[in-house]
Structure formats: structure tokens, C-alpha cells
Amino acid sequence: xxxxxxxxxxxxxxxxxxxxxxxxxxxxxxxxxxxxxxxxxxxxxxxxxxxxxxxxxxxxxxxxxxxxxxxxxxxxxxxxxxxxxxxxxxxxxxxxxxxxxxxxxxxxxxxxxxxxxxxxxxxxxxxxxxxxxxxxxxxxxxxxxxxxxxxxxxxxxxxxxxxxxxxxxxxxxxxxxxxxxxxxxxxxxxxxxxxxxxxxxxxxxxxxxxxxxxxxxxxxxxxxxxxxxxxxxxxxxxxxxxxxxxxxxxxxxxxxxxxxxxxxxxxxxxxxxxxxxxxxxxxxxxxxxxxxxxxxxxx
Length: 299
Prior knowledge:
Helix content is 68%, strand content 4%. The chain is mainly alpha-helical. The strands form two sheets. A two-stranded antiparallel sheet has the order 1-2. A hairpin with a 3-residue loop joins strand 3 (163-166) and strand 4. The longest helix is centred in the first third of the chain and has 25 residues, at 17-41. The model is unreliable at 239-263 (pLDDT under 50).
């Protein structure tokens, strides 16, 4: 057990959130692929498919009741090499960019909650819109696309004018890249992948609302649930970090008295100026006080 804890601390906990999520997706894909391979050798392909389907989000509410874990597990499942490749490449670049602005920890929240929002939109659509009535029992949602679209939309909302070099030749602002991907999803709903397209839009909506809430422009309707989920997970894990942080906060109000401004939300104009500076000169160009202001704004 001690060896496992050492490996976990050295090779996983010290990684950024982007790399953690990337490795989890790759590990899940590898395990499922190996499972399918062995099932193929023993003529159990259909059985294997049925087992793996229990990790996908079903469109039918009657099935969802017995698969309540699927809005989480489906976010780490993929159906093929190109499926996971496209999702992970986009996630790596957008997630790394976004973490430079809001910190690594919030990437987990946006990824997981964005994916769960995408799943809820998918389930709602399949049980409300008549077009899905006939195939509701066959509808399945799989893949990290909803979560990735949440990350993409969050980055585009936070720094819409940030330019990236697409395919090594085309300079494109994030807001236009996000708009192109959203339009592709909208166009694909009536013709190609309706359930997936709708779910992607749900993830993008969450990412946009999350950042607008961080900036103080809107009240995030998911914020309370998000805080409850994070608190519940923290209570369940009971990590040493939690114990230490708890004792640190219980040391009395002396530290709070030394930092009375910590609860004051930075002015939006100050935040915008810092974001513009990052866009022009990079995150490393910020002073210590500017980094602290950006951190406070993201809380």
C-alpha cells in the first residue's frame, strides 16, 4: 500500500489537472480496448458490448435509474482511436491554455460538471422531443466531447480575442474557433449525430456560464451544486490536505485579520486589464500582485 501511495503522490497528484484527466481517459480507453480484444477471442463481442454500455449514458430514463453512475463514467469512454484522439488533442491545448488563466484545480470542475450538464441536456432531449421517441431506448451518449466543449467554451469566453495558430498556418481567435465548433454541432443535429450534438451544446453552455460567473457577470445556476459536489467528494476522501487546511483555518481570526481584503472581489476592469496583459505577453509577465488578483477573481 505504501508503494502505491508513493507512486500516486509522485506520478499522479503532482501532475496538472489537464494531464491527470488526459491519463485517465487514455487508461480507460486502453482497459476497454483490452477487454474487447479478449472478448473477441472468445466470441463474446456482443456480451462485451452490453457490459461496456453500462458505462454510457442511456437516453431512456427507465434505464438511467439503474445506471445513475453513467453521467460521470461516460466522460472517460471513447468508441475508437480517432474519437479519443480528436477529443484529447483539443482538450490538451484548450485545457492547458485555460489553466494558465484560472489555475489547474478549476479544470476538474469545468470538465466534470460540463460533462454532467451535457448528459442532462442529452437525457432531457431524448425524453421530451418527439423526434427521439422511437429510438429513445437505443440512444447512448459516450465520449469526452461534452466536457471538452465546456473547456473550449470557457477559454473562449474568458479570453475571446486570444489568438492561436491553427494547423501551424492559420491565426484564429478563440471566439471564432468556438463558434465554428458550435456551428458544426448545430448542423450535425438533424443529419448526423443528434444526441451528441445536443450534448456538446450543453457542455459549451456550462463552460460559458461558469466563466461569466467567475467574472461576476451572471449568477451561475450550477454553482451551488458544484460546491456541494466538491465538498462531498472532499469529505469522502478525507485527505491529509483537508485535515491540514482545516487546522489552518481553525487557528483563529489572526490570519483573517491580516488579510481583510481577501474576501473583496477584484474590480472587473482590473481583471480585464490582467487578461489583456496575459494575452499579449503571457502569464509569466504578471507581477505577484496581479497573479493574486486573478486568483481572487477566479474564486
